[in-house]
């Protein structure tokens, strides 16, 4: 079984991605800080389908200095890492002029610095294997603006730039780097948005509906698959046509 590390794999998009990858035959190493009951459900399903295909690896990705050791432990315990899905992310809403600098720092740390450092250590494993796939979960906020999300938007745009240049750097080693940019998807991250705002986003999208967790998971699975063997340095937008 090929190992895929999915950060933020305990709920929302990350858990959906994990489910999909397990069905596609991968072993998923799901990273998040805390355990929850949804993880037990997915583990039970994974055991029935393909024993050992879902492993929860508790870790706080904000602890940047512990990342090298964390990755080397994962490699020791589970073997080479074929895929990395940098999905964990946080969002604080607020106008920049009033946002505490500590929150700005936390957003940059979890959404930007942490995936870059994690990729640094995981890509070394991929280099020695001569193959690998990296998928960075950005957002349509990287292209569009949204009042109160300037720092979040900055972190999500940064992942696109990171992906493109890294794709150029590691392409010769058969390692591919792409991004997915989801539109609004109903998860804990977006709970603060009211029914009215959701309806508005759906009404304004080309398909008159919202993208779902499964849609994003499908895009990630595709980018990890052999079908995407000649796709690197690009981004797939999954937003039901919100930005069309
Ligand atoms: N939902 C949307 O509409 C949407 C749209 C565009 C892009 N995105 C992006 O998609 C990704 C997933 O979003 P989501 O909506 O699924 O969010 P979510 O439901 O809030 O899930 C976030 C995941 O990240 C984990 N996480 C957060 N901080 C962490 C840390 N310091 N260390 C380890 N794990 C951490 C969480 O687990 P713990 O809290 O237990 O650590 C959880 O598993 C994010 O990068 C987000 O920016 C979401």
- In the CATH hierarchy, the architecture is 3-Layer(aba) Sandwich
CATH fold node name: Rossmann fold
Name every ligand kind in the structure: NADP nicotinamide-adenine-dinucleotide phosphate
Number of helices: 7
Say how many strands there are.
Answer: 7
Outline the biggest β-sheet. Answer: 7 strands, parallel
Strand proportion, as a percent range, falls in 15-25%
Could you state the order of secondary-structure elements as H and E?
EHEHEHEHEHEHHE
Q: What is the CATH class designation? A: Alpha Beta
Task: List the topology elements.
Layout: E1 3-7, H1 12-23, E2 27-32, H2 37-49, E3 54-58, H3 67-78, E4 81-86, H4 101-129, E5 132-137, H5 150-170, E6 175-182, H6 195-204, H7 213-224, E7 235-238
Parallel strand pairs: 1-2, 1-4, 2-3, 4-5, 5-6, 6-7
Helix pairs in contact: 1-2, 1-7, 3-4, 4-5
Bound molecules: NADP nicotinamide-adenine-dinucleotide phosphate (NAP).
